[in-house]
């Protein structure tokens, strides 16, 4: 069955080969390339495991900002007396706040699917594809070959090798969005922007929050003065332990015990919480895509190597966004996608 929209989880079409001018992997910023390619009349294949919209829409900047907004309002009300305003919060409906975040995401999915069904010269492959040979991918048993390929496969949460981590249910920036009830307490492992955003959110909701950060500073890539000021402000509403390495986690009755050690003093401590969230960095999805099967090289962290034109080590294959691990922000990925497309069209000029 061949149409403008393909849901291969429901198909069993064997070992056929479909050839395209352009293959785009990833439905986040890859949409910029799909739009441009279709406007030039190219035959396009769009591959994504779903859900539509990529990291930013589904588990990144959009849902996190939808949660930060009510958190900011709560803190403003709590601190309003400084301005001579006496205000009181009588109730916080955690589930309603979470549903408010999810609703526009669902609406965006529906809008994108309607666009897919009306597009010309576009086949959408819903499934986790991987390269099997030069310029050829397999998605749910079907083979796809492209003259030019653009990889925007994104990244996923990096889970550090902590003793016992495989034996507990931990949250990430993806699964935390599925919560229906507010946890009474949470330990967040990591101190980057994802950790800081969710720490702020949960603290505002009334959760007891502890951040365990390996580095000396929060958001360590920021200026030291910014990190220091951020820590000072956040410590008013939560516990922040920097220079702390997590050694082990284990489940005991109704709580999770996190055993850590101060890297300077060597002193060990145990923190207990109802939930634990891992926000210790990101990992490229290039390994899942098996890019080496098509001659695409990765660096020692697993991110795809690109040159100044965003072309990979394989001619006519470009990569952009979180998959290359440069500046992992949505607006950067959008611009990189546009640059990669223009370089492919104008042959690096």
From TrEMBL:
What cofactor is needed?
Answer: FAD
The residue ranges of the FAD/NAD(P)-binding domain are 20-337
**Pfam families reported in the protein's UniProt record:** Pyr_redox_2
Whether Flavoprotein counts among this entry's keywords is: yes
A GO term, aspect molecular function: NAD(P)H dehydrogenase (quinone) activity
Does the record carry Flavoprotein as a key word? yes
- Keywords, in A-Z order: Disulfide bond, FAD, Flavoprotein, NADP, Oxidoreductase, Redox-active center
Its family? Belongs to the class-I pyridine nucleotide-disulfide oxidoreductase family.
Question: In its UniProt entry, what is this protein called?
Answer: FAD/NAD(P)-binding domain-containing protein
Q: Which organism is it from?
A: marine sediment metagenome
């Amino acid at each position: 069955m061949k149409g403008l929209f393909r849901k291969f989880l429901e198909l069993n079409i064997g070992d056929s080969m479909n050839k395209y001018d352009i293959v785009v992997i990833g439905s986040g910023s890859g949409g910029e390339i799909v739009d441009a390619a279709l406007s030039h009349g190219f035959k396009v294949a769009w591959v994504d495991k779903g859900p539509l919209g990529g990291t930013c829409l589904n588990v990144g900047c959009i849902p996190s900002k939808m949660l930060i907004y009510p958190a900011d309002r709560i803190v403003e009300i709590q601190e309003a007396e400084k301005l001579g305003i006496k205000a009181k919060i009588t109730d916080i409906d955690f589930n309603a706040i979470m549903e408010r975040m999810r609703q526009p995401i669902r609406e965006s999915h529906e809008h994108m699917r309607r666009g897919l069904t009306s597009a010309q010269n576009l086949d959408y492959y819903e499934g986790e594809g991987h390269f099997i040979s030069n310029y050829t991918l397999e998605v749910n048993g079907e083979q796809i070959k492209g003259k030019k390929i653009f990889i925007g496969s994104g990244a996923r949460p990096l889970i550090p090798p902590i003793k016992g981590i495989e034996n507990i249910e931990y949250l990430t920036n993806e699964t935390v969005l599925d919560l229906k009830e507010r946890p009474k307490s949470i330990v967040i492992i990591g101190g980057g922007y994802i950790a800081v955003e969710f720490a702020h959110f949960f603290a505002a909701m009334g959760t007891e929050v502890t951040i365990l950060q390996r580095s000396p500073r929060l958001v360590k890539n920021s200026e030291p003065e910014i990190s220091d000021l951020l820590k000072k402000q956040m410590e008013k509403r939560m516990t922040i332990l920097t220079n702390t390495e997590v050694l082990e986690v284990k489940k005991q009755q109704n709580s999770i015990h996190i055993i850590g050690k101060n890297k300077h003093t060597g002193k060990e401590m145990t923190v207990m919480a109802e939930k634990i969230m891992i926000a210790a960095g990101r990992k490229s999805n290039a390994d899942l895509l098996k890019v080496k099967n098509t001659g695409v090289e990765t660096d020692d962290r697993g991110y795809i190597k690109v040159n100044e034109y965003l072309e990979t080590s394989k001619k006519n294959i470009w990569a952009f966004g979180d998959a290359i691990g440069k500046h992992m922000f949505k607006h950067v990925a959008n611009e990189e996608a546009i640059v990669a497309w223009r370089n492919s069209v104008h042959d690096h000029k």
